[in-house]
Amino acid sequence: MSAATPNPLRAGTRIQKSADPCAVVVFGATGDLTARKLVPALYNLSRLRLLPAGFSVVGFARRDWDDVQFRALMKEAVQEYSREPLVEELWDSFARGLHYVSGTFDDDAAYARLGERLKKQDEAHGARGNRLFYLATPPDSYEVIAEGLGKNNLARPAATSGWTRLVVEKPYGRDLASARQLDEHIGQVFRERQIYRIDHYLGKETVQNILVFRFGNGIFEPIWNRRYVDNVQVSVGETVGVEGRGGYYEHAGALRDMVQNHLLQVLALVAMEPVASVSGDAVRDEKAKVFQAIVPVENVALETVRAQYASGAIVGQTVSGYRDEEGVDPRSVTETYAALRLHIENWRWADVPFYLRTGKRLPKRATEVAITFKTPPLQLFRQLGGGDDPTPNLLVLRIQPDEGISLRFGAKVPGTRSDVRPVNMDFRYGTSFGTDPPEAYERLLLDAIIGDSTLFTRWDSVEAAWSLLSPVIDAWGNGERPLEFYEAGSWGPDGARDLMEGDGREWHRM
Ligand code: BG6
To answer: 338 near 255, Cβ under 8 Å?
Structure first.
């Protein structure tokens, strides 16, 4: 087949599937996530006319609200949190599809009321029995809700038509054993292909662009391997503390809250092999292979860092230490900073270290992937300010904020001498596209409604991530790597610097 002849087997793979009419049932509808993310995202999808005709939302929670109250509160939420201002007419038509059912998650009568309500909506909106159940509750309710849906015959589509899907928020378990137990429980009611596990990082445009950058261009993939790459760093810095979520965070910590999901997912996209198609399970299959190839952390004392912020200052503002946050034990040993060195034992990456770090109360909010390349074999030119060795080429994928990509290389300093100084080539989303990327939740909700699970985490990668990190959490619990402290507003503990220095490297400056 000539290059110009399209392959008929591939035809149609890039066409966006359309969404069936459906009802989205949000468990935990009175909570923060619904107000801050879910309803604003659905409103924006509706504004962009991306939702199907016959779309409706049923909020389900304990509080004794009715449709009118739910609509009024969701309107306030959209006014406060939507990325685009609320337009009355658009809101009115969207709000007509918002409903509320009150009940506790273990009450069969409440599920019966929900079932009745959904039936009515099928009639009124023509949703044809299609339902997306969204678990926006604290994780300790996941099992009981799945069970309630199963027992009350809501999990299975009606015999005539329709589909049912379950969207589950993180955290999916708190270690390997509890994740397996949760999955087994949910698995008694829903099949894997019905389960959509959210990792909101996968909904970010810039995270999706990792694949476009790698596989939509011809020039990067040939150098994306151990022959050319010296090391890869994935860093997520946050200036915020625990933002009133001390109660949750105390039992989580940075490793569970960020590394187990967001950082490892980003790592997998950076490290995976090329795919023949970006639809279906192809991407998730390749990511799973990366997880299988990550070497278990054997020496926790040498390969990991755990630390907690003490009081300090961020942008001139004094902030308290983690132990003084509301809901936090004053003797807490929960880590707010974690760093680790991983190795991926496969043909492409053997001997290239992958460094991960994330922390709260750092000086800057930034998520970046930094790929440092090997230096040229000969030093022909004088480095200005770069020490003895040439400054290595550095590719930085800026996930957020200031989304973009930059490439550092050496350039001749103007003048009669052959002096070299590193300079940057820079791409910025804002400048090139002149538009703000949509919120991650918009993309993810739409994909779940459409039935595209590519950007959701499959059980095998969740299990692999816990298999990797559970032993680290246990070893930390046994004191194998002592907890350090860092001043709020600093770049983290000394141990993180030592981890790099020990390897003759340094953290990329964000
Ligand atoms: C969440 C974590 O998953 O991600 C939070 O629970 C964290 O602790 C947040 O602040 C960071 O997300 P983003 O999109 O702001 O980088």
So the answer is: yes
